Amino acid sequence: MDADPTEGYLRRAELLAELGHYDEAVAELDQPIARDPGNSEALVLLAAVELAAGRAEAGLAAARRACAADPDALPPLVEQGLALCDLRRFKEAAAVADQILAAGPDDPYAQLHGAAILGEARNGQRALDAAWHAVALEPDNARAHLVLAGIAGRLELTDLAERARGEAVRLDPKLATVSGRLRRYAPLAVGDHRVTTMAVYASAYTVAVAVLTATLHPTTPSASRGLALVFGAGGLGLLGLLAMRLPKPLRGQLHADRASAVAGYAALAGPLLILLYAWIGTPWPLVVAIAATAVAGVALVSKMRL
């Protein structure tokens, strides 16, 4: 008797979706769904692929077919809730989230995903309580802490959001740069803006000082170098002070998150290069300092697109 090829189709579809080949992934799923139109697992995966491809209507249709095929299963409800959020049908999404939470009061999967959907559809105490419960049920689940961080961040509970995100990154360092579905669960938290703001201000300061000292260099090089010494040292000290005032989870993010690390080190290079100009007197370090701010800007833009 021939083995059922369904599993192979599903795994290939998952791999193609992870690589961003969504149309090919959908094509892989055509076969198992054609063989068994009530295959809930294949329909759930189809819904997830369609959502990842930005086709929320198709994702919702697949999720509803999966719900009809297996009314008691939670994954179809999760995909349905996410699709409704993408379609901005938040009232319906919140109702689905409540259904998920009620179906699994002691199920970590239900509490995690129900809280995440409710947090996006109708954030509030109910979503926060569910996220806390998910963390209590599975304290070593990094994604549960990430969901809690996202909900707390939306509620402007800054300290809680930072602690939860820090714990998530401690449990799974790869979550320092979340993308895709995880990014919607934990949008840019309030604390993340501190890292971004620090890099932006440092870059602006570097450009202003570099332009000023470069303008003065041809006519009054001594005054230019003197200003570079004062402003370079002041900028370096201010940047160090701001960095020390960051909470420990965010300081750790500067090492774990590549984009944040590039932006941070590029911003730090600016004042150092200005001091180098004050020491050697040639304007080339000023040019490199301005280039460093461009590097920091590119890193910040890439982080925002994740």
Automatic annotation (TrEMBL):
Renumbered ranges of TPR repeats: 6-39
InterPro entries tied to this protein: TPR-like_helical_dom_sf (IPR011990), TPR_rpt (IPR019734), Ycf3 (IPR050498)
Keyword terms of this UniProt record: Membrane, Repeat, TPR repeat, Transmembrane, Transmembrane helix
SUPFAM superfamilies, A to Z: TPR-like
Record keyword Protease present: no
Spans traversing the lipid bilayer: 198-216, 228-247, 259-280, 286-302
Top-level taxon of origin: Bacteria
Protein name: Tetratricopeptide repeat protein
